[in-house]
From TrEMBL:
Belongs to the GSP E family. Signal peptide: none annotated. It comes from the Bacteria. This is CpaF family protein. Residues 79-357 form the Bacterial type II secretion system protein E domain. Coiled coil: none annotated. GO terms for molecular function: ATP hydrolysis activity. InterPro entries: P-loop_NTPase (IPR027417), T2SS/T4SS_dom (IPR001482), T4SS_GSP_E_ATPase (IPR050921).
């Protein structure tokens, strides 16, 4: 049961006043030591103060309204204020605070304006301070952008004025309590059983896979599922900016990057972790996302015995994914000619899984594409499965069908030799209009 924000017309003012009085008295009493007083004690005292004030001021309030005031003050004092209601709502997956008065939320892939607001930018800044202080950071004019995490693992990005013109801006990607399973994705219509079967064979057969897609398109979710196909007896090293992957295998080493401290020192990048991981005798390297020079190390690892590695990359289609990889390799500072880079990509990457977030908010694997190597300086791509969009129904839902393209996968023989044979029929296209 979610509790709504305190925003009853007319009575809102009374609540706000009561709340701030309770809050002020509490601060007087505890002399600012709310963080060192046991939470249960603070909670109890808030309840008592509300009752005292209600009696003192002759307010008429229902028991339920009192409880709401108590909850709100508890959220302010012990938690993240108005954010607690949104964080506690399991339907909300992202929270986007554009200013103290404007908060958008994502539910079921759709954005909407939330009725929840902060009272002021000051209140919002207090909440921000509370979030970033847990990782020993502060946000101010000299460091106006900070990444942090909440206790539950949710990822937070903060950017404040003068960089953000309309006020302190906070973006929270809530930590998915339980990662989606492959069955979930099939039920959602994100992928078909046959596509899963093919991808499972590719992962087990040690092909190198890149999941490509835009922000929020479901890359990490798919990477998590693909990683789940890695056999139990292999040693897996995962490398992420913020550990999101939830592998169920036992033999997993989880590495996470570290941002610089307040003095600007001690940063450990994805790239350094990738290089280090090669000395950890991994069977598989899973990199949460390639967005810089680590792409080169990843390609080299894929090309030199660490086959079966997995990563994601920000791109809108498989062709763009290849181009982006090339750009990232250049960022590594290696003075390699374009052609050499493309040859590396062509031999390192075997499969590109393209994710997309469609207009109706659904996420789909819109393409599975094989990389066939490099020919005449161009990376050769061949699509094996595709999503054919056919229209939008009256509810705004995207209609369409997944289908094999009819091409026999180049890697079929390799997969069979790795003990992952697949029937040819799987790759027969569905005639247009059926399925
Ligand atoms: N196939 C899917 N169907 C529905 N929701 C999904 C699907 N894949 C991911 N999501 C949700 O979409 C959001 C973004 O997913 P994520 O995998 O983190 O994307 P990315 O890594 O591309 O930014 C999450 O809230 C996640 O739970
Ligand atoms: Mg991601």
């Amino acid at each position: 049961m979610g509790r709504g924000p305190l925003a009853k017309p007319g009575s809102g003012n009374m609540y706000a006043q009561l709340r701030s009085k309770v809050h002020n008295r509490l601060i007087e009493e505890l002399a600012g030591s709310t963080d060192s007083t046991p939470p249960d004690q603070v909670r109890q005292r808030i309840g008592e103060l509300v009752n005292e004030l209600v009696t003192e001021q002759n307010l008429t309030m229902t028991r339920q309204d009192k409880l709401r005031v108590i909850d709100t003050v508890i959220d302010d004092v012990l938690g993240l204020g108005p954010l607690e209601v949104l964080l506690g709502d399991p339907e909300i997956t992202e929270i986007m605070i554009n200013s103290s008065r404007q908060i958008y939320v994502e539910q079921h892939g759709k954005l909407s304006l939330s009725p929840v607001t902060f009272e002021s930018n000051e209140q919002l800044m207090q909440v921000i301070d509370r979030i970033v202080s847990t990782i020993g950071r502060r946000v101010d004019e000299s460091s106006p952008m900070v990444d942090a995490r909440l206790k539950d693992g949710s990822r937070v990005n903060v950017i404040i004025p003068p960089l953000a013109l309309r006020g302190p801006t906070v973006t929270i990607r809530k930590f998915a309590k339980e990662a989606f399973t492959v069955e979930d994705l099939v039920t959602f219509g994100s992928v078909t059983d046959d596509m899963v079967r093919y991808l499972r064979a590719c992962v087990r057969g040690r092909l190198n896979v890149v999941v490509s897609g835009g922000t929020g398109s479901g890359k990490t979710t798919t990477l998590n599922i693909l990683s789940g196909f890695i056999p139990e007896d292999e040693r897996i090293v995962t490398i992420e900016d913020a550990a999101e992957l939830q592998l169920r295998q036992d033999h997993v080493v989880t590495l996470e990057t570290r941002p610089a401290n307040i003095e600007g020192r001690g940063r450990v990048s994805i790239r350094e972790l990738v290089i280090n991981s090669l000395r950890m005798r991994p069977d598989r390297i899973v990199v949460g996302e390639c967005r810089g020079g680590e792409a080169l190390d990843m390609l080299q690892a894929m090309n030199t015995g660490h086959d079966g590695s997995l990563t994601t990359l920000h791109a809108n289609n498989p062709r763009e994914c290849v181009g982006r990889l090339e750009t990232l390799v250049l960022m590594a500072g290696a003075e390699l000619p374009s052609r050499a880079i493309r040859e590396q990509i062509g031999s390192a990457v075997n499969i590109i899984v393209q994710q997309s977030r469609l207009r109706d908010g659904s996420r789909k694997v819109v393409s599975i594409t094989e990389v066939l190597g490099c020919d005449g300086g161009d990376v050769q791509l061949r699509e094996i499965f595709t999503f054919r969009q056919e229209g939008i129904d009256e509810d705004g839902k995207v209609m369409g069908a997944f289908t094999p393209t009819g091409v026999t996968p180049h890697f079929l023989e390799h997969l069979a030799s790795e003990g992952e044979p697949l029937p040819l029929e799987m790759f027969q296209p569905v005639p247009v209009g059926e399925g």
